[in-house]
């Protein structure tokens, strides 16, 4: 049996009061999905008309309803503007939440103080306060406050979420995950805990599990933009480009100036018309590995080996970039050596001068011209994870098997752009991160 949709118009327009029960009912209504978000947008337009025709205490009630509706739609600026013009404990509490989401922490703390003085549940306010202290980097104060609230551990999902967030900040992921799972047990719709569980699975490469948690977040507003962006990337990796497009459009609807979302949307839309063959990608990767085979792996004559060394030819890929005439022009390199080299190349399905014919696809990998200092080598040995890349860029690094900065700088921009779901947004991100270490991609 399908539950009857909660009438959001009756809840917010026709009903005079707006209290904590109203907010809970609104959240339940949005969790029903379907056309409820569109309905809330229509209700918001009606609330604005009501506000225009009212004054005094009535206007403050419409400001409250409009502020709450805007908060759950993710329109934080509208929420803040309206909630500041209303009054009461509920208004102050959600003003604090909206300000905190905008990372206006000092103003948020003032709003929460006012909410508590106006009678809002003290423990709920204190949990919000602990979250702000943590985000400001005041970990000691945040933990002290949570310690005072540990009697909430038996029934408060928010308590376990805030505690888990502290453990995540400290780098204790294992303990954090236990508290996040406990939060979900107590409140299956706790958006913050669902997001962090989704992100943890995302980092671990458990894409299906991550998608499941992110999708559950969509059922419990307000939905954080990070959920939509991460989910969009995972949809792209699963070749569900239409769903990815929908995610990015929702981000832009909430924040039309988000350039990253706009570029991701463009990439996803382009992908809906692209042909992708896993077999071709696998072949290309295997072919690239063949090109990297050193010539010293083959049993060549001393004369051939010495000639190649003098010409700085070290791999099969290097040989695809020289012609027969170039080899023959080298001192002591004759027809016998040429036949030997051609036979070696043929055994791997290659031929001399192949890349000269096919263009720059097999361009020589970056090779330092001078010995590196210990400091330079240490930088190149740093793991790619030190760049703190976005989900999309990080997945590209994993797909290409790039584990260190040294691996990364051997790639050209064109090679990265050939990777599935890697666009100009990700390329610019990688370039900016490398610049922080004084590095560039090959060819930049």
What's the short version?
66% of the residues lie in helices and 0% in strands. With 444 residues, the chain is mainly alpha-helical.
Describe the model.
Among the domains are: 1-120, Alpha Horseshoe (Serine Threonine Protein Phosphatase 5, Tetratricopeptide repeat), CATH 1.25.40; 293-358, 5' to 3' exonuclease, C-terminal subdomain (DNA polymerase, domain 1, Orthogonal Bundle), CATH 1.10.150; 374-435, Orthogonal Bundle (DNA polymerase, domain 1), CATH 1.10.150. The chain is mostly helical. Helix 10 (157-170) runs antiparallel to helix 11 (173-186). It has 27 helices and no strands. The protein is 66% helix and 0% strand. Residues 358-369 have low confidence and may be disordered.
Supply database-style keywords.
single chain, about 450 residues, mainly alpha, Serine Threonine Protein Phosphatase 5, Tetratricopeptide repeat, DNA polymerase, domain 1
How much strand content do the residues show? under 5%
**Termini distance?**
61 Å
Order of helices and strands: HHHHHHHHHHHHHHHHHHHHHHHHHHH
- CATH class of the domain at 1-120 reads Mainly Alpha
In the CATH hierarchy, the architecture of the domain at 1-120 is Alpha Horseshoe
Structural class by helix and strand composition: mainly alpha
- Gyration radius (Cα, Å) is 29 Å
Overall shape: elongated
Number of strands: 0
The fold-level CATH name of the domain at 1-120 is Serine Threonine Protein Phosphatase 5, Tetratricopeptide repeat
Figure out the total of helices.
27
């Amino acid at each position: 049996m399908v539950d009857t949709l909660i009438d959001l118009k009756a809840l917010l327009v026709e009903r005079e009061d707006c209290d904590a029960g109203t907010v809970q009912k609104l959240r339940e209504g949005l969790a029903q999905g379907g056309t409820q978000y569109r309905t809330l947008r229509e209700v918001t337009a009606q609330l604005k008309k009501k506000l225009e025709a009212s004054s005094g205490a009535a206007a403050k009630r419409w400001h409250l309803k409009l502020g709450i509706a805007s908060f759950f739609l993710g329109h934080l600026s509208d929420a803040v503007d309206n909630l500041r013009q209303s009054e009461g404990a509920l208004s102050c509490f959600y003003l604090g939440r909206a300000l905190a989401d905008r990372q206006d922490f000092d103003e948020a703390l003032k709003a929460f103080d006012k909410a508590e003085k106006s009678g809002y549940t003290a423990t709920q306010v204190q949990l919000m306060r602990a979250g702000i202290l943590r985000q400001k980097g005041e970990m000691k104060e945040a933990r002290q406050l949570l310690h005072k609230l540990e009697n909430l551990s038996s029934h408060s999902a928010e308590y376990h979420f805030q505690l888990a967030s502290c453990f995540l900040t400290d780098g204790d992921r294992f303990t954090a995950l236990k508290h996040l799972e406990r939060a979900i047990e107590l409140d299956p719709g706790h958006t913050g805990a669902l997001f962090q569980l989704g992100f943890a699975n995302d980092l671990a490469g458990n894409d299906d599990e991550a998608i499941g948690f992110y999708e559950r977040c969509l059922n419990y507003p307000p939905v954080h933009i990070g959920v939509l962006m991460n989910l969009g990337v995972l949809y792209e990796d699963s070749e569900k480009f239409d769903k990815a497009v929908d995610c990015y459009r929702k981000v832009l609807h909430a924040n039309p100036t988000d350039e990253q979302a706009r570029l991701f949307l463009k990439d996803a839309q382009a992908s809906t018309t692209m042909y992708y063959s896993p077999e071709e990608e696998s072949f290309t990767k295997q072919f690239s590995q063949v090109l990297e085979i050193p010539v010293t792996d083959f049993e060549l004559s001393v004369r051939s080996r010495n000639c190649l060394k003098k010409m700085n030819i070290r791999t099969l890929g290097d040989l695809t970039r020289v012609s027969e005439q170039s080899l023959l022009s080298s001192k002591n390199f004759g027809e016998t050596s040429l036949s030997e080299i051609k036979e070696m190349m043929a055994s791997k399905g290659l031929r001399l001068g192949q890349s000269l014919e096919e263009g720059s696809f097999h361009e020589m990998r970056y090779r330092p011209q001078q010995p590196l200092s210990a400091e330079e080598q240490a930088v190149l040995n740093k793991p790619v994870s030190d760049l703190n890349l976005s989900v999309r860029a990080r997945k590209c690094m994993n797909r290409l098997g790039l584990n260190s900065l040294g691996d990364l700088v051997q790639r050209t921009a064109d090679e990265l752009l050939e990777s599935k779901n890697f666009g100009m947004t990700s390329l610019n991100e990688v370039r900016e991160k490398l610049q922080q270490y004084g590095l560039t991609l090959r060819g930049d």
